Amino acid sequence: MSCIFCRIIKGEIPCIKIAETAKSLAFMDIAPTSKGHALVIPKEHGERLTDLSDESCADLLPLAKRVAKATGAENFNILQNNGRLAHQEVGHVHVHVIPKPNTEFGLVVGWPSFSISKEELSELGEQIRSRME
C-alpha cells in the first residue's frame, strides 16, 4: 500500500508518536504551523471522513481532545479536511491539532460567506435532513 499514513501505522515509516489507541494514532506533524502541531489518524484507511466506520470516527475526536489538552494551548484549532479541493494533502483521514499561541503561528483562516435567503436555507436544510441515514 502506498498510503504514507498506513505505512506509519504499520511502522514502515517512523513518526514521533505521542498517543495511540486500538483505533487511532497521534503523532507530531513534520511540517508544523506552530509548536505542538500534531496529527490524529484512524488506523482504518479511509480517504474521507465519510469512508470510515462509525467506530473509527468515534475514536478520533476524543484522542484529538486529549492531545489538545496535553499541548497546554489555551487557543487551538481542530481541523479535518476532505478532498483535494478542500485542502486535503494526504488521502487518509487525519485531524490536525494546531495550537494557536499568537497571530504569527498556527492556523490562519479565511472564511468567505455568501448571502442566502431564509427560504433557500430552509429548503437546503430539508434536503440534507431527508438524506440523513
Automatic annotation (TrEMBL):
Where is the motif Histidine triad motif annotated in this sequence? 92-96
A Pfam entry, by short name: HIT
Per UniProt, what is one GO molecular function of this protein? catalytic activity
Single Gene Ontology BP annotation: nucleotide metabolic process
- Taxonomy, superkingdom: Eukaryota
- Per UniProt, residues of the HIT domain are 4-107
Signal peptide bounds: none
Which residues does the Swiss-Prot or TrEMBL record annotate as the active site? 94 (tele-amp-histidine intermediate)
Q: What is this protein called?
A: Adenosine 5'-monophosphoramidase
Organism the protein comes from:
Schizosaccharomyces japonicus (strain yFS275 / FY16936)
